[in-house]
Amino acid sequence: MTPSRTCSLVTGSLQTYALDFYEALAASLQRRGWKLQVFVGSRATYRPWSKLALAEESGLFIFIPGKPAPEWVQKLLGSSWRDKILLPAGRDLTNALEAAGTDLLIVNERNPLNIGASLWARLHGIPCALSTDIGQNPPPHAATRAHLIYHRLIAGLYDGVIGRTVDGESTFAKSAAILPVLAPHGIDTARYPVRPARPPGRFRFLFVGMLQELKGLDALMAAARLLHAQGHRFEIRLVGSGTWEPSAEDRAAPWLSLAGFTEAEALLQEYHQADAFILPTKGDTYGVVVHEAASCGLPLLVGQAAGACRTLVEEGRSGYQLDPSDPVSIASKMALLIEDPELGPILGARARELAENWSAANSGERVADWLLELYAREKSPPAA
Q1: Helix (H, G, I), strand (E, B) or coil at 130
Q2: What is the model's pLDDT at position 220?
Q3: Topology adopted by domain 5-186+359-379
């Protein structure tokens, strides 16, 4: 079908985990007679475009650089080492939006670069939607107090909200002026097939992520020491790199192995060689690795502060929600899986079902339908 209308999406930087959704949304919109164009303000500092095998200007993604904000703005709005606050650089972005024939605009988060695009949409009567992780109760690392105040002040710019977390969607659900939809950070589940059956042996818990205190690794080590003292036979496999390091005693323990940073096919093999996935995090806005593990059919043990815990971890059905401040409770839930060989596959099968439900392809379909509904609502003549 030849596209008759264009949906433009503006994002400050292009993260690896967002690619599946953007491509799925583009395909879903094309089937409905729309085109998606993604404008990117910066190469992500932790995933350069060269590593994503993307050209600076491709059919779907167009790089239009923003201007880095002053340091005081970066601190005020809580920018991270990965995603810097960008300001509009002249009229390059709005000129590009006009040239694309934008009929509907999505902005990813409330970066000042994107606010310029939102104001342009308002000025031209173009429906505008916000795609956001951040709701009323984000993890402490995700937003400063000033950032949250800033978010509330500019909420009136948007006609709809794509919640990339349950908190991001539910924050706006009660507003009659804003149409919300839930579309968590899904993945292409075809790239993460269900793991083959593992031969009997030591039960392996897999952790994937940045090695840092925020991920609850100290609590995980304490839980492991408890399990070991109880005589359980298991292994904890840490995949990732970072500033956190185990103690000398834990490093020498028979239950701990360190894989370092791993990706692509080697990471898939780590999922397939595990019996359960564990992430006792104190604060992940979402946690895409949880979705990858669920897609592979692993039972999930995930900290309650992770956004993915709200969509993928059904207590006692796909896994268990963890309190990262309670190593004793963590150890008891790990023991349930070690002691019952039939429990893990049952929980893992449900985790796979949930991973499929929230896959990038399914979210692309939901959001495409929702965007057409939003466009029709905003473009309909007011009732007499």
Answers
A1: strand
A2: 97
A3: Rossmann fold (3.40.50)
